[in-house]
Amino acid sequence: MIIFASMEDYLFFNTLQDQRNLADYHKDYHIHLLCHGGEMSFSMGAKCHLVREGDLLIWQMTTDFDEITCSEDFNADVLLVSGHFLSLYNPEQIWATKAYIYIKNNPVFHLEDAERTLVETDFRAFRLRISTEVRLFEEEIIGEMLRIFLYDLWNVYSQEIEKHQTEDITSSHFLRVLLLVQEHCIREREVAWYADKLNLAPKYLSEVCKDISSKPASVWIQHYTAHELTKLLSDKSLTLTDISDRMGFSSQAVLTRYLKRTLGMNPSEFRRKNQTAK
Predict the structure, then answer these.
(1) What's the rounded Cα separation, in Å, for the pair 36 and 135?
(2) Which of 136, 166, 196 is the last residue of a domain?
Protein backbone atom coordinates (compact mmCIF):
# COMPACT_ATOMS: atom_id res chain seq x y z
CA MET A 1 0.00 0.00 0.00
CA ILE A 2 1.33 3.43 -0.92
CA ILE A 3 2.33 5.53 2.08
CA PHE A 4 1.36 9.22 1.98
CA ALA A 5 2.36 11.90 4.47
CA SER A 6 -0.43 14.23 5.54
CA MET A 7 1.07 17.22 3.72
CA GLU A 8 2.48 15.07 0.90
CA ASP A 9 5.93 16.60 1.25
CA TYR A 10 7.28 13.05 1.19
CA LEU A 11 5.86 9.81 -0.19
CA PHE A 12 7.03 6.22 -0.18
CA PHE A 13 5.87 3.24 -2.25
CA ASN A 14 6.99 0.00 -3.89
CA THR A 15 6.58 -0.47 -7.63
CA LEU A 16 5.66 -4.14 -7.39
CA GLN A 17 2.99 -3.64 -4.73
CA ASP A 18 1.51 -0.31 -5.86
CA GLN A 19 0.08 0.67 -9.24
CA ARG A 20 1.85 4.01 -9.63
CA ASN A 21 3.31 5.82 -12.64
CA LEU A 22 6.62 7.44 -11.75
CA ALA A 23 6.13 10.11 -14.40
CA ASP A 24 3.02 11.34 -12.54
CA TYR A 25 5.25 12.60 -9.73
CA HIS A 26 7.87 14.25 -11.90
CA LYS A 27 8.13 18.05 -11.60
CA ASP A 28 6.47 17.84 -8.16
CA TYR A 29 9.04 15.66 -6.40
CA HIS A 30 12.67 14.63 -6.39
CA ILE A 31 12.52 10.87 -7.03
CA HIS A 32 14.88 8.38 -5.34
CA LEU A 33 14.52 4.78 -6.49
CA LEU A 34 16.32 1.67 -5.26
CA CYS A 35 15.95 -1.35 -7.57
CA HIS A 36 15.60 -4.81 -6.00
CA GLY A 37 14.86 -6.76 -9.19
CA GLY A 38 13.60 -6.62 -12.76
CA GLU A 39 14.51 -3.83 -15.18
CA MET A 40 13.45 -0.32 -16.12
CA SER A 41 14.67 1.77 -19.04
CA PHE A 42 14.20 5.45 -19.88
CA SER A 43 15.64 8.12 -22.14
CA MET A 44 17.24 11.44 -21.29
CA GLY A 45 17.84 13.36 -24.46
CA ALA A 46 19.63 11.03 -26.88
CA LYS A 47 20.88 8.73 -24.12
CA CYS A 48 19.08 5.60 -22.92
CA HIS A 49 19.52 4.44 -19.31
CA LEU A 50 18.87 1.01 -17.82
CA VAL A 51 18.03 0.38 -14.16
CA ARG A 52 18.70 -3.10 -12.74
CA GLU A 53 19.01 -4.82 -9.37
CA GLY A 54 21.34 -2.92 -7.05
CA ASP A 55 21.01 0.37 -8.96
CA LEU A 56 20.07 3.67 -7.38
CA LEU A 57 18.15 6.08 -9.61
CA ILE A 58 17.67 9.78 -8.84
CA TRP A 59 15.45 12.04 -10.92
CA GLN A 60 15.68 15.67 -9.94
CA MET A 61 12.64 17.87 -10.47
CA THR A 62 14.44 19.60 -13.36
CA THR A 63 15.24 16.30 -15.12
CA ASP A 64 13.62 15.73 -18.52
CA PHE A 65 13.05 12.08 -19.38
CA ASP A 66 10.68 9.95 -21.45
CA GLU A 67 10.11 6.47 -22.93
CA ILE A 68 9.87 4.77 -19.53
CA THR A 69 9.57 0.99 -19.82
CA CYS A 70 9.40 -1.45 -16.88
CA SER A 71 9.49 -5.23 -16.84
CA GLU A 72 6.55 -6.97 -15.18
CA ASP A 73 8.75 -8.02 -12.27
CA PHE A 74 10.31 -4.58 -11.77
CA ASN A 75 10.66 -4.28 -7.99
CA ALA A 76 11.87 -1.00 -6.52
CA ASP A 77 11.31 1.14 -3.46
CA VAL A 78 10.63 4.77 -4.25
CA LEU A 79 11.12 7.80 -1.99
CA LEU A 80 9.70 11.09 -3.22
CA VAL A 81 10.57 14.41 -1.60
CA SER A 82 9.11 17.78 -2.50
CA GLY A 83 11.44 20.61 -3.47
CA HIS A 84 10.26 22.64 -0.47
CA PHE A 85 10.95 19.85 2.00
CA LEU A 86 14.35 19.08 0.50
CA SER A 87 15.32 22.74 0.68
CA LEU A 88 14.10 23.00 4.27
CA TYR A 89 16.11 20.01 5.51
CA ASN A 90 19.12 20.14 3.17
CA PRO A 91 22.05 19.78 5.60
CA GLU A 92 24.87 21.22 3.47
CA GLN A 93 24.79 23.41 0.37
CA ILE A 94 28.26 22.76 -1.06
CA TRP A 95 27.88 18.99 -1.34
CA ALA A 96 24.27 19.44 -2.45
CA THR A 97 25.56 21.54 -5.34
CA LYS A 98 28.24 19.00 -6.25
CA ALA A 99 25.71 16.17 -6.19
CA TYR A 100 23.23 18.19 -8.26
CA ILE A 101 25.77 18.57 -11.06
CA TYR A 102 26.85 14.93 -10.98
CA ILE A 103 23.37 13.40 -10.75
CA LYS A 104 22.06 15.53 -13.60
CA ASN A 105 24.40 13.67 -15.97
CA ASN A 106 24.51 10.37 -14.06
CA PRO A 107 21.00 9.56 -12.78
CA VAL A 108 21.71 5.83 -12.41
CA PHE A 109 24.44 4.65 -10.04
CA HIS A 110 25.25 1.00 -9.28
CA LEU A 111 25.75 0.34 -5.58
CA GLU A 112 28.40 -1.96 -4.18
CA ASP A 113 27.28 -4.37 -1.44
CA ALA A 114 28.15 -2.11 1.49
CA GLU A 115 26.63 0.93 -0.22
CA ARG A 116 23.45 -0.96 -1.03
CA THR A 117 23.11 -2.11 2.58
CA LEU A 118 23.47 1.50 3.72
CA VAL A 119 20.81 2.82 1.33
CA GLU A 120 18.46 -0.10 2.06
CA THR A 121 18.75 0.69 5.78
CA ASP A 122 17.80 4.33 5.11
CA PHE A 123 14.84 3.26 2.94
CA ARG A 124 13.55 0.83 5.57
CA ALA A 125 13.67 3.65 8.13
CA PHE A 126 11.68 5.94 5.81
CA ARG A 127 9.08 3.23 5.22
CA LEU A 128 8.70 2.62 8.96
CA ARG A 129 8.50 6.28 9.97
CA ILE A 130 6.20 7.42 7.16
CA SER A 131 3.81 4.50 7.74
CA THR A 132 3.47 5.09 11.49
CA GLU A 133 0.27 6.74 12.68
CA VAL A 134 2.07 8.72 15.38
CA ARG A 135 2.18 12.26 13.95
CA LEU A 136 3.87 14.13 16.83
CA PHE A 137 7.10 15.68 15.46
CA GLU A 138 6.61 13.72 12.23
CA GLU A 139 8.02 16.41 9.95
CA GLU A 140 11.06 16.93 12.17
CA ILE A 141 11.75 13.18 12.35
CA ILE A 142 11.47 12.66 8.58
CA GLY A 143 13.52 15.80 8.02
CA GLU A 144 16.37 14.55 10.20
CA MET A 145 16.22 11.17 8.44
CA LEU A 146 16.44 12.97 5.10
CA ARG A 147 19.59 14.76 6.27
CA ILE A 148 21.20 11.44 7.21
CA PHE A 149 20.13 9.93 3.87
CA LEU A 150 21.70 12.82 1.94
CA TYR A 151 24.95 12.50 3.88
CA ASP A 152 24.99 8.79 3.02
CA LEU A 153 24.34 9.52 -0.68
CA TRP A 154 27.10 12.12 -0.88
CA ASN A 155 29.50 9.67 0.73
CA VAL A 156 28.55 7.04 -1.87
CA TYR A 157 28.99 9.50 -4.74
CA SER A 158 32.04 11.32 -3.35
CA GLN A 159 34.81 9.85 -5.51
CA GLU A 160 32.84 10.09 -8.74
CA ILE A 161 31.72 13.64 -7.90
CA GLU A 162 35.28 14.87 -7.40
CA LYS A 163 36.44 13.13 -10.59
CA HIS A 164 33.55 14.59 -12.58
CA GLN A 165 34.33 18.13 -11.41
CA THR A 166 37.92 18.02 -12.63
CA GLU A 167 36.95 16.64 -16.05
CA ASP A 168 34.07 18.97 -16.95
CA ILE A 169 34.99 22.67 -17.25
CA THR A 170 31.37 23.80 -17.61
CA SER A 171 30.40 21.96 -14.42
CA SER A 172 33.40 23.52 -12.68
CA HIS A 173 32.24 27.00 -13.70
CA PHE A 174 28.72 26.23 -12.51
CA LEU A 175 29.99 24.99 -9.14
CA ARG A 176 32.14 28.12 -8.72
CA VAL A 177 29.09 30.27 -9.44
CA LEU A 178 26.88 28.52 -6.90
CA LEU A 179 29.52 28.43 -4.19
CA LEU A 180 30.04 32.18 -4.61
CA VAL A 181 26.30 32.80 -4.59
CA GLN A 182 25.94 30.73 -1.45
CA GLU A 183 28.62 32.80 0.27
CA HIS A 184 27.43 36.25 -0.77
CA CYS A 185 23.71 36.11 -1.60
CA ILE A 186 22.83 37.50 1.80
CA ARG A 187 24.07 40.88 0.48
CA GLU A 188 24.62 40.55 -3.28
CA ARG A 189 21.82 39.62 -5.65
CA GLU A 190 22.90 40.91 -9.08
CA VAL A 191 24.25 38.58 -11.79
CA ALA A 192 26.78 41.22 -12.87
CA TRP A 193 28.39 41.24 -9.41
CA TYR A 194 29.08 37.50 -9.54
CA ALA A 195 30.25 37.65 -13.15
CA ASP A 196 32.77 40.32 -12.20
CA LYS A 197 34.11 38.25 -9.29
CA LEU A 198 34.56 35.22 -11.56
CA ASN A 199 35.97 37.22 -14.50
CA LEU A 200 33.14 36.01 -16.70
CA ALA A 201 30.71 37.90 -18.88
CA PRO A 202 27.23 38.06 -17.29
CA LYS A 203 25.66 36.50 -20.38
CA TYR A 204 28.17 33.63 -20.37
CA LEU A 205 27.63 33.06 -16.64
CA SER A 206 23.88 32.67 -17.20
CA GLU A 207 24.48 30.40 -20.20
CA VAL A 208 26.67 28.12 -18.07
CA CYS A 209 23.92 27.88 -15.45
CA LYS A 210 21.24 27.18 -18.06
CA ASP A 211 23.41 24.58 -19.79
CA ILE A 212 23.89 22.59 -16.57
CA SER A 213 20.60 23.18 -14.78
CA SER A 214 18.14 24.68 -17.29
CA LYS A 215 17.94 27.70 -14.98
CA PRO A 216 19.68 31.09 -15.46
CA ALA A 217 22.01 32.51 -12.83
CA SER A 218 19.34 34.94 -11.61
CA VAL A 219 17.10 32.03 -10.56
CA TRP A 220 19.92 30.40 -8.60
CA ILE A 221 20.69 33.69 -6.86
CA GLN A 222 17.01 33.98 -5.95
CA HIS A 223 16.96 30.36 -4.76
CA TYR A 224 19.88 30.78 -2.35
CA THR A 225 18.61 34.16 -1.17
CA ALA A 226 15.21 32.66 -0.37
CA HIS A 227 16.98 29.84 1.51
CA GLU A 228 18.82 32.38 3.68
CA LEU A 229 15.64 34.37 4.19
CA THR A 230 13.67 31.37 5.40
CA LYS A 231 16.40 30.55 7.94
CA LEU A 232 16.37 34.09 9.29
CA LEU A 233 12.57 34.29 9.38
CA SER A 234 12.46 31.00 11.28
CA ASP A 235 14.49 32.66 14.06
CA LYS A 236 11.76 34.37 16.11
CA SER A 237 14.34 36.41 18.01
CA LEU A 238 15.01 38.46 14.87
CA THR A 239 12.76 41.38 13.96
CA LEU A 240 12.02 42.27 10.35
CA THR A 241 14.31 45.27 10.78
CA ASP A 242 17.11 42.94 11.89
CA ILE A 243 16.55 40.73 8.85
CA SER A 244 16.36 43.68 6.45
CA ASP A 245 19.68 44.98 7.78
CA ARG A 246 21.41 41.59 7.54
CA MET A 247 20.18 41.01 4.00
CA GLY A 248 21.01 44.51 2.80
CA PHE A 249 17.42 45.52 2.03
CA SER A 250 16.79 49.25 2.30
CA SER A 251 13.57 48.78 4.29
CA GLN A 252 11.07 46.27 5.63
CA ALA A 253 8.83 47.11 2.68
CA VAL A 254 11.52 46.06 0.20
CA LEU A 255 12.08 42.84 2.18
CA THR A 256 8.36 42.12 2.14
CA ARG A 257 8.10 42.67 -1.62
CA TYR A 258 11.10 40.39 -2.26
CA LEU A 259 9.68 37.62 -0.07
CA LYS A 260 6.26 37.96 -1.69
CA ARG A 261 7.85 37.63 -5.13
CA THR A 262 10.07 34.64 -4.30
CA LEU A 263 7.97 32.66 -1.80
CA GLY A 264 4.49 33.95 -2.57
CA MET A 265 3.81 35.25 0.96
CA ASN A 266 4.73 38.14 3.23
CA PRO A 267 6.91 37.69 6.35
CA SER A 268 3.94 37.42 8.72
CA GLU A 269 2.29 34.76 6.57
CA PHE A 270 5.55 32.80 6.37
CA ARG A 271 6.07 32.87 10.13
CA ARG A 272 2.48 31.91 10.80
CA LYS A 273 2.62 29.00 8.36
CA ASN A 274 6.00 27.87 9.71
CA GLN A 275 4.67 27.94 13.27
CA THR A 276 1.56 25.97 12.25
CA ALA A 277 3.74 23.33 10.55
CA LYS A 278 5.71 22.87 13.74
Answers:
(1) 29
(2) 166
